[in-house]
């Protein structure tokens, strides 16, 4: 009983000239000419672009080889099979080349969409239409999480692939988009599915070997992704400037900092008027500023502050007294504490005293 390979009817146009090449090449045992190989590659590319499967295409060529097996012209099984192998190899090469080109085009289109989505550079209506192709419905609210690691990441790196595999394994296709941008991992999810971003944060923290993840607030509409993404980036920037070492940062918990820096000049005046006198300290203002940072960071617990600074309790008491003497504000007095702590935060946000106010 004869064996049927693939859909020979659909494959027939891509067998053009094959019988002639098979007969000519196998009669003398010669290799296929460059022109013959190029014709097979071109047909392979066209077949891939038409959506034909490579398995069906190869099967059709095997069937054609049997059907048009050369006889009586000096051909031997070895020369026939050698000619057939060269033809099919060239066909597969053209097919794979077309597939690689299609993949590159798809990657370029996806990257362009990601850039437009995160920077809001495209018409919002058109952006929403393109988003549906990637499973996002921008008419609803979305939230964005951004993870930074010790090294920059690209889409093809193992870390993004591992995190994406974990997300899909846990949640399936739930309108989640995972990508990379500027070396960071980015996860976009519906705003009412906080468990997705929380799980992403956990997986990204582990995969990046202790990186840091920031989660923006859910924001509505096509422009909401941009706003949530910017909130996450700002949270990472604040963490860097304020030495916040929490593995997961939520923009909703850090809203006080943008408020404090909204009026930069007012904050600069507060820092200068409150902490400026520390310049008169021996060794400059930085040691005393570090003391205040540690003191407020421990909730004003002296023993823990001294331990963090590797100071004796007596040395810490001296430093706090020195701050009081220079600034007129007592860090241990609740009535002075808020002004001092706000000024310390402002100094770190403005990079004072490293940079002039």
TrEMBL record:
The family database entries (Gene3D superfamilies) matched by this protein are listed as: PucR C-terminal helix-turn-helix domain
Domain (PucR C-terminal helix-turn-helix): give its ranges: 288-344
| Domain called CdaR GGDEF-like: residue spans | 120-238
The similarity annotation says: Belongs to the CdaR family.
Name used for this protein in its record: PucR family transcriptional regulator
Origin organism of this chain? Streptomyces fumanus
């Amino acid at each position: 009983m004869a064996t049927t390979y693939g859909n020979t009817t659909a494959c027939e146009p891509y067998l053009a000239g094959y019988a002639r090449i098979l007969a000519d090449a196998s009669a003398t045992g010669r290799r296929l000419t460059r022109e013959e190989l190029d014709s097979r590659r071109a047909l392979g590319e066209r077949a891939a672009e038409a959506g034909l499967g490579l398995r069906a295409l190869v099967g059709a060529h095997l069937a054609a080889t049997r059907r048009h097996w050369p006889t009586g012209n000096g051909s031997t099984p070895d020369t026939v099979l050698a000619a057939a192998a060269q033809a099919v190899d060239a066909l597969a090469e053209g097919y794979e080349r077309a597939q690689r080109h299609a993949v590159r085009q798809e990657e370029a289109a996806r990257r362009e969409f990601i850039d437009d989505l995160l920077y809001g550079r495209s018409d919002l209506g058109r952006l929403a239409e393109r988003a549906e192709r990637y499973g996002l419905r921008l008419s609803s609210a979305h939230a964005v999480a951004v993870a930074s690691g010790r090294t920059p990441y690209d889409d093809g790196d193992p870390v993004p692939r591992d995190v994406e595999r974990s997300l899909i394994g846990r949640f399936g296709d739930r309108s989640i988009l995972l990508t990379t941008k500027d070396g960071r991992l980015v996860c976009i999810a519906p705003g009412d599915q906080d468990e997705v971003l929380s799980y992403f944060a956990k997986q990204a923290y582990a995969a990046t070997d202790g990186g840091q993840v920031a989660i923006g607030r859910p924001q509505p509409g096509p422009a909401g992704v941009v706003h949530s993404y910017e909130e996450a980036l700002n949270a990472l920037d604040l963490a860097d400037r304020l030495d916040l070492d929490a593995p997961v940062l939520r923009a909703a918990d850090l809203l006080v900092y943008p408020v404090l820096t909204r009026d930069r000049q007012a904050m600069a005046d507060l820092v200068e008027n409150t902490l400026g006198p520390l310049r008169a300290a021996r060794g400059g203002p930085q040691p005393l500023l570090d003391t205040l940072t540690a003191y407020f960071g421990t909730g004003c617990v002296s023993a823990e502050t001294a331990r963090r600074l590797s100071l004796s309790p007596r040395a810490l008491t001296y430093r706090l007294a020195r701050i009081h003497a220079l600034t007129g504000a007592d860090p241990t007095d609740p009535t002075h504490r808020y002004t001092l702590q706000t000024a310390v935060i402002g100094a770190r946000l403005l990079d004072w005293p490293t940079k002039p106010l």
